Write a sequence for this structure.
C-alpha cells in the first residue's frame, strides 16, 4: 500500500510546507499550520466538466482580435434595492460571482433572501443553498420578511457534488451559497472550512458561473480582525467583494464594495434594519447629520467621497487635559495614525499645545472614513474643542493637510460642493488650488485656504492662533 503523503497548510494564507512551523513563514500567523493529505489526482469536479467559458448566447469562447471585440454594454439585472444596485455598479451582471462578508447576525442572509424574492419575480428560478440552516428556519425568516416566490427553491446541503447535480437538474439563473465555509468537496480529505476546501469550492462555483452563465452570491464568514475567513485567493477569484458592516446595537447597516470588476470600488450603500427586513436609505448625508447639535464645540462636517457618492459626515472631537503622564489618543471610525499626525501638525504649525491633552475623535453614524479629504475637518474639530469655540453650523470642510501645514488639493470637489449645497450649507472651505475652474453652487460660498493656520483664522475670526 502506498504511503499517504501529507503537507502542512496555513489556514490564514494557504501557504504549504512539508514541515510543521509554529509560525507561518509567509503571513506570520501563529498556530495556523494544519496537516492535510496530498491529493494525488485531480478532483471529480475538474474531470466531470471541462472548464470552457461561454458567451451570453451560450457559445464557446474563441480567440478574437482586439479590433473585433464588441463593446456592447454589459447587461444588468436590477433589484428593487437601489442601494444594492449602486454598490454593484448599476445592477447584477449575469454570470458573475459575488462574495458578501460580514459579522455574524449583521443581516447577510436577510439581505440575500430579500434579493432572492425580488429576482424570482423576474420569472427566473432562484436556488438558495444553505449549509447552516434548515428549510424550516429559512421559511420562518421569509415569512417575517414577506418573501413569497413560486420560483424560489430552498436546498439545505453542503456536499458540492449534490449541489452541482441539483443545479444541472433545476437550471436556476441565480444561486445563493450560505456560506462557503460550510461547503465541502467529498474528494478532499481536509476538514470543512479549511483552505483546501474553500479554494476548491470557490473554483467549482466560479466554473459554474462562467461556463453556465449563472449569477452566484456567496456568503463568507469574517475573522475577528474583520477580514473574510479563508485564503486571500478567495477574494482574488470572485468578481465582486462586498462587506456588510454595522453595529448590532444600531439599526443602520453599510454595504461597502472593496472589489468590483464591473463597477466602482469603495462604493457605499446604506440600509436600515426593520422587523420586515432591510430598507434602503436614499439620503445618507441627511441621516448622518440629523442629530447634530448646532452650537456644540468640537463638531465639524466633512464632505467625504465614498466611491462615486459624496456623503456629509459629522466629525466630533473632545479635547481634555490629561490626568496621566502620556496623553491618550482614541479614534472611532477614523484612522488612529491620521489623528496623531494631524495633532502633531497643529502643534508645530498652528502653535496649539496639545501634548498634554487627551483626544477622543469619532465619525458619527458608524461610518468609517479613510480618505485624505477629511484632514481639514478633523483639524478644525480638534481646534474647536480645544478652544471651546463652536464652528458655524452651516460650515463644511474639504481638504488634505500636509506635514508643513499646507492644505493640498483633493479630487471631485465640484460633486462634493453640490451635495453640501443641497443640504443647506452656506460656506465650504476647500484647498485654494482647487478653486481654478470651480463653479460654486447657488447659495454656497466657497472659501479657498492655503494653510491650516489660515483656515483656523477664517473659521474662528480671531488672531489668537
Amino acid at each position: 500500500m502506498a504511503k499517504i503523503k501529507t503537507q502542512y497548510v496555513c489556514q490564514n494564507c494557504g501557504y504549504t510546507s512539508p514541515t510543521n512551523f509554529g509560525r507561518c513563514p509567509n503571513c506570520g500567523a501563529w498556530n495556523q499550520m494544519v496537516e492535510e493529505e496530498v491529493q494525488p489526482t485531480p478532483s471529480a469536479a475538474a474531470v466531470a466538466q471541462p472548464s470552457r467559458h461561454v458567451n451570453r448566447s451560450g457559445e464557446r469562447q474563441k480567440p478574437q482580435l482586439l479590433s473585433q471585440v464588441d463593446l456592447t454594454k454589459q447587461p444588468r439585472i436590477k433589484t428593487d434595492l437601489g442601494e444594492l444596485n449602486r454598490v454593484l455598479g448599476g445592477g447584477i451582471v449575469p454570470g458573475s460571482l459575488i462574495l458578501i462578508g460580514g459579522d455574524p447576525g449583521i443581516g447577510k442572509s436577510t439581505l440575500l433572501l430579500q434579493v432572492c424574492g425580488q429576482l424570482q419575480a423576474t420569472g427566473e428560478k432562484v436556488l438558495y443553498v444553505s449549509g447552516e440552516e434548515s428549510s424550516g428556519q429559512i421559511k420562518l425568516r421569509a415569512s417575517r420578511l414577506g418573501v413569497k416566490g413560486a420560483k424560489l427553491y430552498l436546498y439545505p446541503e453542503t456536499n458540492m457534488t449534490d449541489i452541482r447535480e441539483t443545479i444541472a437538474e433545476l437550471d436556476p439563473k441565480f444561486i445563493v451559497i450560505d456560506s462557503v465555509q460550510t461547503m465541502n468537496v467529498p474528494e478532499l480529505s481536509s476538514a470543512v472550512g479549511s483552505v483546501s476546501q474553500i479554494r476548491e469550492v470557490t473554483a467549482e462555483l466560479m466554473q459554474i458561473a462562467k461556463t453556465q452563465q449563472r449569477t452566484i452570491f456567496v456568503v463568507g464568514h469574517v475573522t475577528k480582525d474583520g477580514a473574510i475567513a479563508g485564503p486571500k485567493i478567495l477574494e482574488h477569484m470572485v468578481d465582486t467583494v462586498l462587506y456588510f458592516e454595522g453595529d448590532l446595537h444600531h439599526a443602520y447597516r453599510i454595504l461597502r464594495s472593496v472589489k468590483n470588476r464591473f463597477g466602482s470600488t469603495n462604493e457605499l450603500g446604506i440600509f436600515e434594519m426593520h422587523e420586515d427586513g432591510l430598507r434602503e436609505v436614499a439620503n445618507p448625508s441627511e441621516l448622518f447629520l440629523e442629530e447634530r447639535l448646532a452650537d456644540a464645540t468640537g463638531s465639524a462636517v466633512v464632505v467625504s467621497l465614498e466611491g462615486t457618492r459624496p456623503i456629509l459626515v459629522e466629525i466630533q472631537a473632545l479635547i481634555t487635559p490629561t490626568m496621566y503622564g502620556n496623553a491618550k489618543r482614541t479614534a472611532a471610525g477614523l484612522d488612529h495614525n491620521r489623528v496623531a499626525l494631524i495633532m502633531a501638525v497643529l502643534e508645530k504649525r498652528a502653535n496649539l499645545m496639545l501634548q498634554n491633552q487627551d483626544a477622543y475623535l469619532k465619525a458619527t453614524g458608524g461610518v468609517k472614513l479613510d480618505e485624505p479629504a477629511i484632514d481639514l475637518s478633523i483639524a478644525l474639530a480638534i481646534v474647536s474643542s480645544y478652544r471651546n469655540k463652536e464652528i458655524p453650523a452651516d460650515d463644511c470642510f474639504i481638504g488634505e493637510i500636509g506635514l508643513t501645514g499646507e492644505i493640498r488639493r483633493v479630487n471631485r470637489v465640484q460633486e462634493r460642493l453640490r451635495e453640501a449645497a443641497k443640504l443647506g450649507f452656506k460656506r465650504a472651505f476647500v484647498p485654494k488650488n482647487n478653486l481654478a475652474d470651480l463653479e460654486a453652487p447657488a447659495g454656497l460660498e466657497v472659501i479657498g485656504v492655503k494653510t491650516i493656520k489660515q483656515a483656523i483664522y477664517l473659521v474662528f475670526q480671531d488672531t489668537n492662533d
